[in-house]
Amino acid sequence: MEEQTKLKTALIVDDEPVVRSGISRIVTHMGLKPDDAADGKEAISKMSDSYFDIIFLDVRMQGMGGMEVLGWIKDNNISSLVVMITGVTEPDIIIQAMKMGAFDYLAKPFGVDDIENIIQRAEKASAPPAQTIGIPKSKGLQAGPDRIMLGSSPVMQSLFTRMLKVAPTDGTVLITGESGTGKELVARAIHYHSRRRENEFVPVDCSALVENLLESELFGHVKGSFTGALQSKKGLFELANHGTFFFDEISNLSMDIQAKLLRVIQEREFTQVGGAVRIKVDLRIMVASNRDLRAAIAENKFREDLFYRLHVIPIHLPPLRERGKDIEELVNYFVLHMSRKIGREAPRVSREAMDVLLSYAWPGNVRELENTIERTLILKDDAVIKPEHLPQDIRQQPPDLRSFSDKMVSLKDLERDYIRFVLSRTNGGIQKAAGILGINRKTLSMKMKKYGL
Question: Where does the chain cross the membrane (predicted)?
Answer without folding.
Answer: none
